[in-house]
Amino acid sequence: RPPEPEPTSSAMEEPLLGPFEEEDLARSSAGPGMSTTTTAAAAAGPPRGTDLRRSQNARWRQHLLLAVRVIQPWEIVFLVSLGLLNIYLGQLVGYLAGDFYACLAAKDAPAFDSTMRKQVLFALACCVTFGSVQPLSELLSFRWRKRLTLSLHAMYCTNSKAYYSVRLDNPDQRIQRDADFLCKALAQVGNLVCVSPFKILYYTWLSVTYFGAKTIGCLYAYFALTLIAQKLLMDNVTPLVVRRERAEAEFRQTHFRLKGHREEIAMAGEAIEARERYVLDESLGGALRAQRKLVVAHWALALSSSLIDYLGVVVNYSMLGFAIFRGIRGWDVPEKDLPKMISQSSFVTFQLIYAFSQISDTARAATDLLGYAERVGELIGFATGEGGAGDPEDPKKGGSMAVIRRAALGGRPMEWSVHEAEGPVLEAAVRTFPDFLARPNGGSRLVAVSTFQCATDKRGGARLASAAEMNAQHRSFLALESEVWKDLTDSGHFCDSVDPLTGCATHTRLGQRYSEARGAEEILRYPTVFDGAQGEDPCPVVDHPRFGTACYPATIFTDAPAHVAASSVGKVLARLRLVSGGSGALLRCEGLGVAREGKFVFRGLSFELGVGEGVFVRGPSGSGKTCLVRALCGLEEPGEGSVHAPPLGCVMVLSQSPLLMHGGNVADQVAYPASAEGSEEAIQRALEGVGGDGLAARIRQCSGSLSEAETQMVLLARVLYHRPLLAFLDESMSALSAEERGRACGALAEAGVAFVLTGRDALGGVRTLDLSRRSSLLPPPMN
After folding, report:
1. CA pair distance 298, 295, nearest whole angstrom
2. Which residues are 556's β-sheet partners?
3. Which of 158, 332, 497, 589 has minimal Cβ neighbours within 10 Å of its Cβ?
4. Distance CA 430, CA 173 (A)
């Protein structure tokens, strides 16, 4: 059945893609049979349990004391003295309101003038003292930051080499940013903590003279309950502050890494770019999740503080009503003196309530103080040996997203995509490939590579011609499938396909039949129609959104990671297009020259590389080896000549500055940009292939402790593990011995990886090009 509307002949004869071209069409939405989810390292909640809570509080106190001991904030005495003076002046100003009520009620003009003069004098004094609190607090935080940062530098850069052995996350942020925030929070909270007890005691004494000890005791019970509630909320906020700062530091570090390795990532192609973008998005997601949790916790803290403040007004008027209507001793005064007494007693009560409210209002600043003290104190403890080294974060694991790609196979338009098989698709595939269950972890994970070829024979009704077209499509699929099967099974993965003629397994033991139409419906949500000649049972057929029913569906299944399967299919398609195009050259340079500042760094470079072939480009420093790699990758325009190379998706680049995964062990570095989970055997084989037998036995070792030669072996194993069509190796074997270089080159050739290797020392067994004699002046421009 032709697609609706039926395509014209010109539409079916659209130009096919070039020898190495592929086009990503669309990202498919996740259906029941496909997983496109990604796993993110979400911030864990606060510890649960009394023992863990006590241990956490003890650690916070320890780190806060370590930081305070280094800061030595003795200057806070000035803030405390100023605060005590403000308490006294505030009481004098507050009592003046009662004097105003008394003289106005008595219409006493001389008393009013005297009270007004006092008001002006006290207002000027309060303007000076209260206005000096914030500037003095900032000045002290500045002095403390200088003292703390200099001390951290002295601890960090000493003979103990803490800067080298530190295993804490982002020590630079702890010194540069967290120390600054810690000093500001300490100035704010420290002043309040030191002054508030004096203010509370003073106004408690004054309140007792007005309302009696029992009434004030009830007020204290109210504040005790509110402070306990605030303390419970603070215990949940402090770890969120620490987690937010850690997530922000991680986000900043990923951007620094991208900036520092921008050239290596640009040369590495789409797979590395996608992985780096995924890391950036995940680090942003972690920062936003931590910030969202902190905002919610701060919201709860602010609501509780506001509730305490406004309930304090209710408490104040309740106390006044109780004193007046219940006749507390001392309130039996003449009616003309009652306004003054109400004003002064209300002021005293409000000040006492305000003193407690200030403590609750600083709960957010106090949690920030503990959070920053945790990070700075942890660094001090590590440098001085008085604290722990912190708890490492769990590594992030990447996911995959399905992308429909357009290509050409056997002269026909083709679309293919890679999906995580789940649900009905996984169940049907397990029944189709019973040998898959016999493998370790068999039946738990399977990847489906869906392919659709479009028929080019459009002579409707000619069943003989349609059969011939289907046979041609079948041969094209088998050519693709056999190469992919060989590539993945050689890497130690399970791989098999559904034979389009039988619906059963192609290579392994036969099981049940697999329906391509049902599979396409589950995975890609493509509709199914039923077709069949008269008198025959209707057959389910895929109704492709682009090809209609004139398509040939076929699926390859493997337990390899999705990125490995996609890379394998892409390489095989490029290789088949080379064969069908009559050219065996993966890379062809014709008269290539690169110019810098009016001079050719090199020129006249011509060579070809086929599958599994290599060339060694030799030359001293400055001869243009790196310029050549940039030109081959398309990052630098040639001054003359041309380069014909596969797209970067089929190429792997190892630059002089190795592009290593952010964190991770040896296995993670080999598998980068993908996850190493479930690929340990293939990783070990790749390491053994390039001569890293010792590394193969310790793939869980942290990669930060590797030597230069071991790092180069790990990166070469990455090439062997991913098996690109072509690899550009810019001095990637400079630390290896001649024997190790020869073994690595032989392993790459045996794996079918063509490579361009640059270096200074001679290398036997590989064709050599010398750049030292290829420099000449740039010809003058033509008029």
Report:
1. 5
2. 449, 497
3. 332
4. 50
Annotate 524-569 with DSSP letters as a single string: H---EEEE--TTS--EEEE-BTTTBT-EEEEEEEESS-HHHHHHHH
Residue 405 contacts residue 24 (beta carbons within 8 Å)? yes
Distance CA(272)–CA(662), nearest Å, equals 13
In what helix (H) or strand (E) does residue 730 lie, and over which residues does it extend? strand 726-730
CA dihedral for 160, 161, 164, 169, sign (positive or negative): positive
- Hey, what are 41's tokens? 């390292």
Tokens 């409707």 identify what position? 460
Q: Which amino acid is at 426?
A: L
- Can you read off the two tokens belonging to residue 86? 């403000």
Q: Distance (Å, rounded) from C-alpha 301 to C-alpha 281? A: 30
Report the amino acid identity of residue 705.
S
Closest CA to 688 of 655, 714, 669, 727: 714
Looking at residue 636, what DSSP letter applies? S
CA distances from residue 685 to 169, 182, 504, 611 in whole angstroms, order as listed: 33, 50, 31, 21
**Nearest-angstrom CA–CA distance, 438 and 198:** 76
Rounded CA gap, 704 and 264, in Å?
Answer: 19
Could you read off the pLDDT of 508-521 as tens digits, one per residue? 888 899 998 888 88
Query: 745: which 2 tokens?
Result: 């080159």
Q: Which pLDDT tens digit goes with each residue over 739-764? A: 888 888 988 888 888 899 988 887 77
CB atoms within 10 A of CB 185: 22
CB 22 within 8 A of CB 570: yes
Number of helices followed by number of strands (H, E) in the chain: 23, 18
The span from the CA of 247 to the CA of 263, in Å, is 26
Q: Using CA of residue 92, residue 97, residue 98, residue 99, what is the dihedral sign?
A: positive
How would you write 372-438 as a 3-class SS string? HHHHHHHHHHHHHCCCCCCCCCCCCCCCCCCEEEEEEECCEEEEEEEEEECHHHHHHHHHHCHHHHH
Query: pLDDT value at position 25?
Result: 42
- C-alpha distances (whole Å) from 322 to each of 325, 328, 330, 356, 780 are 5, 8, 13, 22, 102
Q: What share of the chain is helix, strand, coil (3-state, %, to 5)?
A: 55, 15, 30
Instruction: For residue 436, give both structure tokens.
Output: 């898959």
According to the 3-state scheme, what is the secondary structure of 85-139?
A: HHHHHHHHHHHHHHHHHHHHHHCCHHHHHHHHHHHHHHHHHHHHHHHCHHHHHHH
Q: Rounded distance, CA 383 to CA 153, Å? A: 10
Task: Give dist(CA 360, CA 373) in Å, integer.
Answer: 20
Say whether the peptide bond before residue 424 is cis (omega within 30 degrees of 0): no
CA nearest 105: which of 348, 347, 333?
Answer: 333
- Provide the Cα torsion 501, 507, 508, 512; round to 10°: -10
Q: What is the 3-state secondary structure (H, E, C) of 313-372?
A: HHHHHHHHHHHHHCCCCCCCCCHHHHHHHHHHHHHHHHHHHHHHHHHHHCHHHHHHHHHH
Q: CA 411 to CA 15: how far, in whole Å?
A: 10
User: Cis ω on the peptide bond leading into residue 239 (within 30° of 0)?
Assistant: no
- Whether 653 and 629 have beta carbons less than 8 Å apart is answered as yes
Quick one: pLDDT at residue 548?
80
Contact between 665 and 697 (Cβ < 8 Å): no
Q: How far apart are CA 311 and CA 319, in angstroms?
A: 12
Q: What is the pLDDT of residue 703?
A: 74
Tokens read off for 238? 């402090």
pTM for this predicted structure: 0.53
Q: What angle do CA 527, 410, 516 make, to 5 degrees?
A: 25
Candidates 290, 387, 347; CA nearest to 60 is: 387
Chain centroid to Cα 690, Å, comes to: 31
> How many residues are present in the chain?
783
Q: Is 713 helix (H, G, I), strand (E, B) or coil?
A: helix
Radius of gyration of the chain (CA): 38
Q: Which segments of the chain have a pLDDT < 50?
A: 1-49, 52, 159-160, 388-401, 458-465, 534-535, 775-783
